[in-house]
Amino acid sequence: MQGSGQVTDAEVDTLLATGNVKTGEIHLAHILIALPENASAKQIEQAKTKADDVKKQLDGGLDFSAAAIRYSNAQDALEGGDLGWRRIDSVPEAFVELADTLQTGQVSQVIRAANGFHIIKMIDKRAEGKQVVNEYHARHIEIATTELVSSDEAQRKIADVRRRIVDAHEDFAALAKQFSNDAPTANLGGEMGWFAIDQYGPKVAEVLAKLKDGEVSAPFQTDVGWHVVQLLGKRSSDRTEQAKREQARDMLRQRKAGDEYESFLRTVRSEAYICAVNPAYVTAELAACGASGAKKPNAP
After folding, report:
1. Relative to the CA of 43, which of 63, 110, 132, 169 has its CA 20 to 30 Å away?
2. What residue ranges in the chain does DSSP mark as E strands?
3. Neighbours of 5 (CB within 10 A)
4. Domains in the chain: ranges and CATH
5. What is the pTM assigned to this prediction?
6. pLDDT above 90 for 89
């Protein structure tokens, strides 16, 4: 049985056919006047009054960033409530609908959400252009380092394999099948297919960027062992439609995950370095933890 969070190609096709997949990006900032969990009518009224007062001050000329620092309960308050650039389809529909009514620099009215009251500022918006990426076609041979094979021994083996390819003109594919420890590609003669340059990590990308078509690299080391790679070709690939399909798939996943706003918060939190959560609030974890654009460092 299909899991509740899984999305089929047919579902993606159906959503795309409706024309409701929005493209582009928006840059928003927000102020959150939070409500405690199971807030009483009095607490809701007090929070609304505070939010209305903040909006009045903004209309009177108070700087939005200063107001966020002073009043917002979100963890991005010290960054002026900045949510950074985000794909339109990844932002809650309520925010998107507001953004559609705002010009650059304008501030919304107070809106109610499950976690409290928000005030949104439209910082900027931009259309999504054609997405063209450079792809590489390559094959490789890997000699893995293990408890039984030291790094020095692996290096000697890969150097000998390279010599047989470059100097003795032996067949690369045959040697890959015989010696490579990378099982998925070894049986294919080392074939890696077409891929974005960073797909296999920074070291492989660094080596590929320096190769000419047909050239075999010098032996190089990664965390799994020693390698040689041969560049077979380069091309530019238009991934605009593929990216749109992924956007549609993400939208459907969010819908199946339940509350759209909470899904957005989880996405933003996952981008943060560290989230210090105040358990007194339903979303004291709001986008803030990563809203300034901070991303997790790339894995080595």
Report:
1. 63
2. 25-34, 82-87, 111-113, 116-126, 132-144, 191-196, 220-221, 225-238
3. 11
4. 23-129+259-291 (3.10.50.40), 132-238 (3.10.50.40)
5. 0.47
6. no
SS (H, E, C) 11-76: HHHHHHHHCCCCCCEEEEEEEEEECECCCCHHHHHHHHHHHHHHHHHHHCCCCHHHHHHHHCCCCC
Q: Packing angle between helix 9-18 and helix 240-257, nearest 10 degrees? A: 100
Q: What 8-state DSSP symbol labels residue 293? A: S
pLDDT at 295: 36
Q: How many CB atoms lie within 10 A of CB 121?
A: 26
Q: Which residue has the tokens 């985000």?
A: 86
Neighbour-count burial of 93, counting CB atoms closer than 10 A to its CB (0-12 exposed, 13-18 middle, 19+ buried): middle
Q: Strand, coil or helix: what is 219?
A: coil
**What is the number of alpha carbons within 13 Å of residue 183 lying toward its C-beta?**
0
Crossing angle of helices 260-270 and 240-257, rounded to 10°: 120
